[in-house]
Amino acid sequence: MLRALAVSIAYFLGAELGFALTPQPTPVSTLWPPNALLLGALLLSPKRSWPLLIAVVFPAHLLSELNSGVPIGMVLSWFVSNCAEALIGAAILRRYIDGPIRLDSVRRVALFVVGGAMVPALLSSFLDAGLVKFNHFGTGAYWDVWSTRFFSNALATLAIVPVMLTWGAALPIRVRSISPRRAIEAAWLAVGLALVCLFVFAEPSGGLAMMPALLFAPLPFLFWAAVRFGPAGVSFSLLVFAFVSVWGAIHGRGPFDERSIADNVFSLQLFLIINFIPLLTLTAVMRERAEAVEEARHSARQLQIALTAARMGTWEWDLVGGSATLSPAASELIGLDRARTYHQFIDQLVHPDDRASVEAAVLCALEEDLPYEAEFRVKNGDGFRWLHNKGIVLRNSDGLATRMIGVATDITARKFAEAALLREATLRESESRFRILADAMPQIVWTARTDGQIDYFNRRWYEFTDTKPGPITDQTWLAVVHPADRSEFGAAWRSCVATGRPHETEARFWSARHAGYRWHLDRAIPLRDDAGTILRWYGTSTDIDDHKRAEQSLRRSESELRILSEYLEQRVAQRTAQLTTANATLREEIDVRLRIEAALRASEERFAKAFRASLDAIAIVQYPSMRIVEINDRWELLFGYRRSEAIGSTVDDLSIYASRAESDDVSGCIAAQGFIREFELDLRRKNGVTLHAVLAAETVAVDGQPCLIMMVRDITERRRAERELEVQRHELAHLGRVALLGELSGAVAHELNQPLAAILTNARVAQRMMANGKPDEAMLREILEDMVADSLRAGSVIHRVRGLIRKDDAIRQMVNPNEVIADVLDLAHSDLIRRGVSVANDLSMSLPEVSADRVQLQQVLLNLVVNACDAMADNAPRDRMLTVATAEEGNTVRIAVSDRGPGVAAGLIDAVFEPFVTSKPQGLGLGLAICRSIIGAHGGRIWAANNSGRGATFSFILPVPLSATAQASAASLRVPSLLEPAAS
What we know:
Shape: flat
Radius of gyration: 50 Å
Strand order of the largest sheet: 21-22-20-19-17-23
Mean pLDDT: 77
């Protein structure tokens, strides 16, 4: 209510000021503030308060107008025109400017000048001038009143509304935010502008004040306000300039002549309007530039913070001069100062093994105009540091590469982590293969850590001791050793572990199978790295109990000793050979593990590069939690999430799936079969934009945890192109109905597809029969005969189509109309099935032949069949019946095609064969005109008639040569009686 009261008071004071600025006897003020004040109030208030504001200014309008002696009719008329102008301007600006109305951009200034000042003043001036003449108020002509009103209201809007918009409710804040220095500068500006305006416009006429050039004296102060104080300063200065200059023009002061006040006022209005617009535009341009500069600084600061946090640095390579320029961070990472050249960097800093790949990446970027990306090592003291470089090539207007810019990232920690993971995975795989081999060996195999703690026995150990797998301690495995051998056996093993010598000792082990102790030869060798450090112990325990028993027997008998000696030597040789083979196998396995480790390391590097450089978005997701473990750059670009946002979040947290149903389908498919192939669905980006994509997923194990590698390919543009192509196909199908050859393509394609599909099916059946062994020759012969028949069928269709589309000159020959009808129905068979049209034949079986061009006759019949099908498109499927009839009438043959459509309109029945006359919404009207031309060339006649019930019949007759009349009775053709739609 306080705002409404303030608007009412301001309106009253503005009206009083407007009357003071009204030169007599003109009924329109030179500068009329009430309209501008009301417009500014509407723009600063919500739309719901507009009726209240208009209501509260009405009493102020009445009071001011009546006090000035304006008739009541003119008072009401001016209130209508004033409100109309304010409402038009407010509606236009609210429509095209979102949020608060500010004059801080060129677009908003242009909208304000055109939509807030010029257009409302232009439209309301017609109403105002008409109301003045209607009320017989004043003595000026209509166009004089209109022009005075237009320029007065436009000038008032340009002078007053910007002050209200820029100061408005923020006046206390603006006053408090002004620094003392700015306040002093503003005071100097105000005093200078006031003094100049008073000198130019308040001085009596005559002398120096009469110089017209003095009109431009305030402009320096206005430019000062625009440059230093923006929209708020320049709008206030323009307001002061406008009121002082208008007052001087009305009272004949300054450079104005008292004898022509109207001309002076008109010139001043034009002068002010022409100067106000560029000054407001200048402030908007400067404000936009200041905001752009500040935004650029903010972006640069953010970029620097991001690069520093990510341990990244920027670089620039001058391809013409050969020098490189690096940021401090990049200089620290790469170890290259600003004076070094690119070739010095390659030769002196890049690892020799990586130079070729770096140069190849640079050459590819330069020659193929692709982004540059390379991973390489640079010298870092006594060692090397891994870097990941990415960049682009900049070219001049002639396409010549002049510069390359990019970023360098330190990936040393990631490379070390990847190498450690690769080694761990390789060792796990090698360990698994070792255990499989050990379980297959006939002797006990075991391994121990570097401290001598045994951590693995093969299956032979558990079978021999009849124990279950579990934690292995010194107590558990020493309990199997004979009590008399434990101390010596344990001491020998600890001594070998301490010295690193190979272990070999004999001891008795408890055998659950034999229910007693058996002698074993226990051997172990250490596995060392390149530096000689022991990594692991590998050992075997060979059953030599039989050997021991033989030794005891030899002590009892010398003869038995010789016999048993040979036997034992043979057994020892066998055992030794087995042990040697086992040791060789173990050494080979160790060598294989080392080679596998190197191969896996290279494979992991290739996978990492392929993962990062893939054109598809790839994510590694834990299953079944669906928590994202890793993503590539394409995934970040496609979905708009940064790596820090995506990694650790679940797919549901990021709302990747556009619908819950598709998310459930993906989860169900993975749970059922463990993978996904080419699954199309809608996905959602971070900004909410939906994209259509193809999803593929594969289950893998990462660090022993089940994971999914999910690949997403964006096919949004492809699907959009397919939809656009589908629309184009529909339109081309319409054009194809105008031309006969276009109609044949779809029908013939289906006719060819059936025999070709049958040939393919029979061929695959024959292949399976051949693969199963001895095939059934009779069945194979039957399959081959079917393939030959289908091939002949396809060839027959191709032969008929080739004859129909041939561009040869018309050749007259004797043809049977029933045969031509049969060919046409065969060609249109698939199209009839697709449309759901049934065909009934009423053919005379004794028709004489006629002299005609077979191809042209087929064209006429096919046009009539297609038109009939189109006419029945809106019928129910059971009510789509096409009838083809032939009959002999004297020396002519009549052929008729009937349908059950709506029939031909009465106004078109005689003109339907004229060019460009058609009843189809999208037809060109050329088909029937071509048919009439063909039939006329054959000496016949074609016409159309509506059926008595429903539909229409198109008939034509062809003359029968006299020589063919006698042969008509002998003609007998096989013609299909009814073609019902069937699934194809």
